[in-house]
Amino acid sequence: MVKIVKDIFIESINNQIIKILKQSEGWYFGYDSMKRENYDDQGLALRTFSDEKNPKLYDQYQSLNLFAFMVVELVTKQLKISYKSIKRVNYNFYHTLSKGNYHIDTNTPKCVSILYNLNKNNGYTEIDGQKYLSNQSVAYVFDSNIKHRGVGSDTELRYNLNIILQT
Fold first, then answer.
1. In the chain, how many domains are there?
2. Where would I find the beta strands (DSSP E) of 27-152?
3. Rounded-to-integer distance, Cα 97 and Cα 161, Å
4. 120: helix, coil or strand?
5. Domain of 161?
6. Strands across the sheet containing 148-151
């Protein structure tokens, strides 16, 4: 079951985060753990936090992580979710030809994923066969072991934030 939280931040805050993302180093081509013979464009990802306790990673992306941590607090408070820790923070970028493969975020038991859209466009996230449009300032929350994928807009760039929580 997917839970939806709307109107988390105003547009100017999301735009500021996108501006920081555009200036950030460390983007890599998205991939999943499944073997594929043909490697399609799955967009780009930027990992800014991991529970593997990499202090350099955390220090380098303080402003982006602060934003992600605020999303966590606002979403979990509204949905009354208690969590033990943040496992991972990834930002995603899709251009008009990007189309992700179905994947799960983690097999670790008792984890939920928060997918927060930074901008509005006609891209979407498909979760367990259901399409969820990329509406600005909307978060989709679901079990991290549910198959999903991101699809870019065919008219503009798409930015979102993916957070995994241990509950």
1. 1
2. 28-29, 44-50, 85-94, 111-117, 124-127, 130-133, 139-143, 148-151
3. 19
4. coil
5. 3-33+40-166
6. 130-133, 124-127, 148-151
Nearest to 164 by CA among 120, 124, 104: 104
Angle at 118 between CA 112 and CA 120, to 5 degrees: 115
What number is the average pLDDT over the span 46-71? 87
Identify the H or E element spanning 163: strand 158-166
CATH number of domain containing 162: 2.60.120.620
pLDDT, one tens digit per residue, over 100-119 is: 889 999 999 999 999 999 99
Instruction: Report the candidate in 53, 55, 164 with the shortest Cα–Cα distance to residue 115.
Output: 164
User: How does DSSP assign 52-77, residue by residue?
Assistant: TT-HHHHHHTHHHHHHHHHHHHHHHH
Q: Of the candidates 111, 91, 102, which has an alpha carbon nearest to the alpha carbon of residue 44?
A: 91
